[in-house]
Amino acid sequence: MDPGGPELAPEWAAGVRVCAPAPQDGPRNAAPAHTLGAMPHRSRLAVLLLDLPPEVHAAGTDFWSAATGNPVEPDMTDPAWHRLGMLGGRLSFEVQRTGEGTPPRWHVDVETDDIPAEVARLEALGARRLRHVEAADPQGRGLCQMTDPAGLVFCVVAVQDDEAFGRSARTWP
User: Fold this and answer.
1) pLDDT for 50-78, tens place per residue?
2) List of residues 6+ apart from 76 with CB closer than 8 A
């Protein structure tokens, strides 16, 4: 998924449903989710992604493979993705080919068993929704692209690695 820029996208863009921005007096100023009767959910920082446009994708992939000593593992279902192993045994390191004109950058994926609850929790901490993508992966699961209070892009995604999630996800009320 190409995270795009920090600008808010229109409600529908190229057939993709976009998250509406939270109202100014909305979730950021609302009571914590656990006080609203929400069910507990779990999440973990799961993936460090290097977003690279086509013109530097191969060079960047090769560089980080050599720098980490990890072999490039192409994703057989999506030629835009390459896995470069694990960092510290818990964080997957991957390279994603983005669209033309997208600046090279890093972003993280927060993996969760309840995307709406995790998005609400992160909004209460100051994050902003950028867009929601339906069926973003081969399994048909969606994701929500967000920015942190400093404007850095990250994504909230469904559980990708059941074993790692079971070992290291944190439970939130």
Assistant:
1) 999 998 888 889 988 887 888 999 999 88
2) none
Place of tokens 């902003």: 128
Q: What are phi and psi of 73, to 5 degrees?
A: -115, 100
Tell me how crowded residue 55 is: count the other CB atoms within 10 A of its CB: 11
| 116: amino acid identity, one letter | P
pTM: 0.68
Calculate the alpha carbon distances from 121 to 24, 39, 40, 127 in Å: 16, 12, 11, 9
Tally of helices (H runs) and strands (E runs) in the chain: 3, 11
97-110: buried (b, 16+ CB within 10 Å) or exposed (e) per residue?
bbeeebeeeebbbb
